[in-house]
Amino acid sequence: MRATHSKKVGTGSNKRPEKLNVHIRNSWRTNLQRIRSIGNMTGYKKSLSEWQCLSEVKMGRGSPIPPMNATVMEITTWAQEYFQKTLSVKTIHRAIRRCRLKLYRSKKKPYLNMIQKRRRFLWAKAHLKWTVAKWKTVLCSDESKFQVLFGKLGRHVIRTKEDKDNPSCYQRSHPDTIHVWGCFSSKGVGSLTILPKNTAMNKEWYQNTLQQQLLPTTQQQFGEEQCIFQHDGAPCHKAKVITKWLGDQNVEILGPWPGNSPDLNPIENLWSILKRRVDKQKPTNSDKLQEVIMKEWVAISQDLAQKLIESISNRKTFEQDEDVQIVLIL
């Protein structure tokens, strides 16, 4: 009523200080002091109190629908049954914010069971006393795949509503895939094998790759010096024909490599760097993709390779501290 009357007589919120001969700064200061003195103004009662928000998080994690990986709609359904209240999705959003929680995109990580975690720990413990000089004798290897418009490229575009059918705003649904095998050491990158388009690595391809790429690389980088070859436990790597061939060639193996542990291999960081560089070139077909991959691979410096090899000591130390409780449990 007071605000309506002030508007009718010409003393609204914009004109009231002048009509009453009060400076506008003093008017705002007076109102601010009044609000601070009486506290928050009364209004609608919150559907969920602060205690209930905290209870929702704690109790929800033990419920059949844990909030850690449930959608907001699932949490809303669970909260309605638990608190016996009619709650909206917006109410749950506000409750999540009041609990100082946020919605994040979940990371994609390999799943590790207790046995795999224990093997990671034992591997780190076995190599804990290795010096940097020892790690510089290791030749790391792995496979990776590249795609035309790989990764998240093209998933989000800035356009108008009318440009939805513009081909430049499309993301290729089934892009061409290129599988590669590479190796590197502290002396730099080694050979890189690019498999034919849409061809995955198997034991036949792997044996052929080792014959044509591994032996020349070890001879070029290490000569008569000690060289320890590293590869993971992929099925094609553990095939009997591969194990026999490596034994016949007197290749020393760094193993056994713990399963689902690509983060322990520094070549994964090298693949990420290579993919970012290839991404900047934006190849449009598989032929250009192969050219860019080979060009950027050769351009990788020895300093970068040496830093990645030296980082292995930090990785195994972290595993030693992280998984010590797992060994005690088992």
TrEMBL record:
Any one biological process term the GO annotation gives: DNA integration
Lineage: superkingdom: Eukaryota
A Pfam family matched in the record: HTH_Tnp_Tc3_2
Domain Tc1-like transposase DDE: 138-289
UniProt domain Transposase Tc1-like: residue ranges: 70-129
UniProt-recorded Gene Ontology molecular function terms: DNA binding
Protein name per its UniProtKB record: Tc1-like transposase DDE domain-containing protein
Species name: Cyprinus carpio carpio
